[in-house]
Amino acid sequence: xxxxxxxxxxxxxxxxxxxxxxxxxxxxxxxxxxxxxxxxxxxxxxxxxxxxxxxxxxxxxxxxxxxxxxxxxxxxxxxxxxxxxxxxxxxxxxxxxxxxxxxxxxxxxxxxxxxxxxxxxxxxxxxxxxxxxxxxxxxxxxxxxxxxxxxxxxxxxxxxxxxxxxxxxxxxxxxxxxxxxxxxxxxxxxxxxxxxxxxxxxxxxxxxxxxxxxxxxxxxxxxxxxxxxxxxxxxxxxxxxxxxxxxxxxxxxxxxxxxxxxxxxxxxxxxxxxxxxxxxxxxxxxxxxxxxxxxxxxxxxxxxxxxxxxxxxxxxxxxxxxxxxxxxxxxxxxxxxxxxxxxxxxxxxxxxxxxxxxxxxxxxxxxxxxxxxxxxxxxxxxxxxxxxxxxxxxxxxxxxxxxxxxxxxxxxxxxxxxxxxxxxxxxxxxxxxxxxxxxxxxxxxxxxxxxxxxxxxxxxxxxxxxxxxxxxxxxxxxxxxxxxxxxxxxxxxxxxxxxxxxxxxxxxxxxxxxxxxxxxxxxxxxxxxxxxxxxxxxxxxxxxxxxxxxxxxxxxxxxxxxxxxxxxxxxxxxxxxxxxxxxxxxxxxxxxxxxxxxxxxxxxxxxxxxxxxxxxxxxxxxxxxxxxxxxxxxxxxxxxxxxxxxxxxxxxxxxxxxxxxxxxxxxxxxxxxxxxxxxxxxxxxxxxxxxxxxxxxxxxxxxxxxxxxxxxxxxxxxxxxxxxxxxxxxxxxxxxxxxxxxxxxxxxxxxxxxxxxxxxxxxxxxxxxxxxxxxxxxxxxxxxxxxxxxxxxxxxxxxxxxxxxxxxxxxxxxxxxxxxxxxxxxxxxxxxxxxxxxxxxxxxxxxxxxxxxxxxxxxxxxxxxxxxxxxxxxxxxxxxxxxxxxxxxxxxxxxxxxxxxxxxxxxxxxxxxxxxxxxxxxxxxxxxxxxxxxxxxxxxxxxxxxxxxxxxxxxxxxxxxxxxxxxxxxxxxxxxxxxxxxxxxxxxxxxxxxxxxxxxxxxxxxxxxxxxxxxxxxxxxxxxxxxxxxxxxxxxxxxxxxxxxxxxxxxxxxxxxxxxxxxxxxxxxxxxxxxxxxxxxxxxxxxx
Length: 1088
What we know:
The protein is an alpha+beta fold. Among the domains are: 3-61 and 101-155 and 313-381, no CATH class; 163-309, no CATH class; 382-469, no CATH class; 616-708, no CATH class; 947-1082, no CATH class.
């Protein structure tokens, strides 16, 4: 085959993700399992179609004709006949000159065009929507809008997280809990952007480079020492070559070369690492169990690099995009009118045949690429399973019957010691001191201690929840450990149009803030990430709700466009500026930027509500001796002209002096004449001819009333500590504006330092800033959403506000990072227990009022990740399918095989995988399992999916009660007519095979709903189904549900059943199968 053919085949293997057999995770693992079959399809079925398409020209093949001519001439020469006189030679030469077809050349052109077309859009695992108009010029989709915002990744979902970038971990002994030998690849922050005093040029490719010094060390872990290998992530320089090979090098090392160097250096680590080096040097075991010809270290390094270099995006409509681009490409790059204008018909036919072949083969390749991309899109957009559900519940909200078990729980006691320093609480006259074990009296004395149900048995948690009514309405906070796109999408059904305030602090995309971007696409990667998340979040906002987004100058202009795309430019409320530091920063920039922004958008600006902030007496500097009240001098005019408001342009007269005053020539009075007369009569006007100073025109008295005076939030915010040290002049306009006070970034850091006695989180936002935003946008009962939760400042601010004013705001916080467990969740437990902290210890107990206003229930859940969804895929092909594909010899059958390979294979053969909903496993709802990975780790553990919790969120259920399970045993017999019936009655037994658990609540449309989960020990056999349904009918009747038809409008049950047969004519409830709605809702992708 030609070089162009091999070049195209190599590219297709890259496009089909077959070019890196050492990557055995995610979709790579699935594609490698099909590698031989896909490669065979390329070699034997797809690409040979190019030659077949030109087979009609075989009789005129130039190479064939030239071979014939050579043979004829040779024969004539043997016969000593002059070839130049031979009619046959003349005929062949004329045919070659006029009618021959260079089939090899045509094939090469087709291969070259196919390669050129697909190469221009593909880069390191991603298709980029660069619409090429001509060399160096790109076209963007424009539909006549007044303003069009576009970026390189506008048509793609951003799917990358920074988890594997910052800290990637794996175990050398994965099954040994005593000595797991955990290894970390950790990114060191200091190397970002610069190295060896050589500033990295923006847009240069960054690679992973083993740290130059102290690249290996040990740190103490939960199960013994852990090896930490440090890497830098930056553009390489010539100095990264080792000294012994640097001479003569003209280019910096590539990632592949740096990986080789890293392996060599690590394997030569000192004696202290000998045991670890030996384990790292062992052959890697592939996913299929085979041993690779490379080491475990190299396998993990390749995986680490790949995870952070490839697959940043999933195209939203790759098939549609590439098909449109193909037509554009053919018209501009292949089909040139000048080439056919003067050609004869045969040549034109050949030319058109080439175009048809290019299009036909390209469409088939596009179909397969779209199949791969759409499959990944399905996994990305599907609602994720809940893999863990836990509650933190304040002791004061738990029935005292549970106290002895809580006091005896040593794991919970130790967490309280570590987080809250309860071991330093001493006995006094009113309350008992700390002891081991804890006493019931100690628990009663500290009602804001929060138990974490992860430390208690499943039986304890079931009993505890069974006693809770209206559990959702009593829950103060929901914490979600998830990618924020997945988290917001998952909660959307339940909280659609229910969020009053969104407060988020996204990564600022400065290059060292943890945001992982594709090289050369830093800003467009960030814009794609932000738009998808705000598109989903916007639908959760209430009609009068407001979204606040923090940002600095680096991405301000891009963020404004992103948010106008998500909320609409008509719903832009304004941008607030707040001072983040007091001193000039050490920066190479000529201007030291000491401020940041908060952009505000409403769901509907006409209805958006921002509540005023209470004014202080300091804002009212004058004292009225007649009324005994303080007042401020405010403008008596408004910013309208005489032409706009003619009825408000008139002179007014001081009734005591008779002097007349016209309004400002460019403004009008704020009141109509009749109202102004009353204002003057009430002595609410400050007259220039009676006032001290240089007052030129009348002003309006605004009296101070602490109960009613509120100021509109304005756009300038200053530091509270410095607010009184400077004079703030009020602008003369129609509003009395209040400059909002907020702390600086240093305040946020100090608060976290005091809570944890160390800096656990970089650059947390000041508490006072978020508190002001929440206060201005919420009231009692409102919900605040933060899907870039970070250290949990938004939740902390809500707790502080609720304690101050007695209102009960609620919060939803979504975070994926490791600090969900190390900072966010501990912070909630700390600030619930006490409000004042220093050096990681509480400084005082809460007052009785503060205790009453503190959180009572905090729920936290963890969701399956996108990578978990990929890693739980299983390929299955039935014997019947395989037989049909093997028999594909005739034209129709081979066409069927081609269609299957190109457009159906992944969807069909992964059906029934655990992450794609295996409804067969619903026979036991308590045993649906997934393999999930710890955040930032390559360690996998098998967990039971919380199907009950997942389904509650899918249908948007506001849960009122989760009942404890009931178990029964039963015996069966048939009556004289062969009908199945119970032999005796259902017998309730603790370990009975027939298990039932119910959830009650209300759906978003207001219907009272009963969800019945049951184990079906009979499985799918006809007799088993009959027995399971008989038990269900008996149990249902026994509960009395059929006589409570007014209680529920909707009943869900897993497994086919006969409950509809139990309805009376008066009953209104409807029965639905859990499996059907579970599948429908899990794969619904509304609004995304």
